[in-house]
Amino acid sequence: MYILNKKNFLDTNSFYLLILGLFSFFINFYFSKLGSFPIDTFLHYDSAFRILKGEYPIKDFWVVSGLTVDLIQTFFFKIFGVTWISYTLHSSLFNVIISVYVYYFFLYLDIKKVKAFIISISFATLSYPISGTPFVDLHATFFLFIATLLIIKNLSTKKTYKWFLIIFLFFLSFFSKQVPVAYAAIVYSIILIGYFLKSENIAAILNIIFSIIVILIFIFILFSIYEIDLRSFFIQYLDYPRTIGQSRFSSIAIYGVLNKFKFLIIPLIFLLIINFKKIKNKKKNLFSEEIISLFLISMLTLILIFHQIMTKNQIYIYFLIPILFGFIEIEIIKSKMKFKKIFSILVIFTLILITFKYHVRYNENRKFHELTKNKLENTLKANNIHKSLSGLKWKNPFFTDETIKEVLILNQAQKKLNSFNGEIMLISNYLFLDSITSKKMNYPNRTFTVDGTIVPLPGNQYYKNYKSFLIQKIKENKIKNILFFKHENISQKLIFDYINENCFDKKSDDQIFYILKLKCFN
Fold it and tell me: CB within 8 A of 508, min separation 6: which ones?
């Protein structure tokens, strides 16, 4: 009979997986509830709720990204109910899955269990907890990241199902957000086609092509079932997004890039130098699995740095630091250098220090949601807004008055929204109100900004497409009033840029809303 004593328990994957699973779940679950930046924190909340109620992105509301995240969150709402807990359950379980896979990946590369565990704990700390809640860029990046690790692990495979899984992850990433996976698809194709031709693995190329065809057919069938117009999909998800941010690259400051990403760039340069020396000394072939793996992880790092710069969002790619340090550990293991153990300990210790640094900045201080300068102890329980938000500690960094005042406004708003006669359309970035009111909010978009990243502005070649979409939704839903929260200061250009002001009677209640009473289209 096998007796599980202390020694063999600590030497099994079971112990490490138990601790890693609990840690990666609860670190995300805990930090997700600290503060709220509504436009990001609730990005997929009401859109998933709307899908649950039979409304669909592209068809019923304008979106430029996030389809995968919406659909997954719809599943969680369906199973666990439309609550804050099921919302953060989604992202917390996602953090578990990717962290556990990182652990197994480094075991596959022959790193000792304890070191693979430390690397994975570091990864779990720096990955999803910076946001805490489901977020489009994170899902897109992590689907691509796992696909990249699977490619490295299965470079020589000819098995169809493995390549199908990899391509499926690429599609999940693309339908989360078009980039960075679009960049990766181009770069990876060049690297892999060269590798497959050199290694005479034509079967892998055929399996990839077959997988792409099968998945595309499946997508077209889904679009047909849910009556999503392909032309609308191409305009919203492919054509218009390509026009966003075309001038951003010119404003990149090299020093700023080097400073922000130094803990990614330095280990990457170190890895490249070591492996270029191997190629130069003919210890490794340019098309060996080891070198191709390095190229892939290097390209992933550079692609994500480029993508991070172009999006101009808070930095979220520091999770790559433990991955690059893991590859450095592999080089130390394979080397014949003296004092290998000392160098290995130094690498792991440095990784722990860097992880702690970014943990404090992004997790403890909630920098990703702009809460760094706000005192998180001045939060209020969000169940004061609605019982379904129980578990969240409410603090909006962009509400300059006391938090309790904002909560009171939201409580009054719910009553007023429910009291309107006829259909309304709310223009707001409180992206949970549709789920907690009996009245439909009929948002025309998922979010509302005037920087041209959400909807085409006047002058954009797709301006007329959005204008037609907005007017069509107003007619279909028989909208009587369009509402804006006064304190949000969302520009009414989001309506007046597309519909003449003469179509409205403008009103204002005492405290909460600007009301545009529609006179046209009735």
Answer: 486, 514, 515
Asked if 29 and 88 touch (Cβ cutoff 8 Å), the reply is yes
Is 172 in contact with 68 (CB distance < 8 Å)? yes
Residue 219: exposed, middle, or buried by beta-carbon count in 10 A (0-12, 13-18, 19+)? Answer: middle
How does pLDDT run across 107-155, given as a tens digit for each residue? 999 899 999 999 999 999 999 999 999 999 999 999 999 999 999 998 8
Based on the fold, state whether residues 86 and 169 are members of the same structural domain.
yes
For Cα atoms 157, 267, 280, give the angle at the middle one, nearest 5 degrees: 65
| Among candidate residues 369, 404, 432, the one where a domain is terminated | 369
Domain range holding 130?
46-369
Q: Are residues 348 and 423 in the same domain?
A: no
Q: Which residues are CB-contacts of 59 (< 8 A; sequence separation ≥ 6)?
A: 226, 227, 228, 229, 232
Q: Model's pTM, two decimal places?
A: 0.94
- Is the peptide bond between 38 and the residue preceding it cis, with omega within 30 degrees of 0? no
Domain boundary among 369, 404, 438: 369
Structural domains of the chain, count? 2
Token duo for residue 109: 């590369």
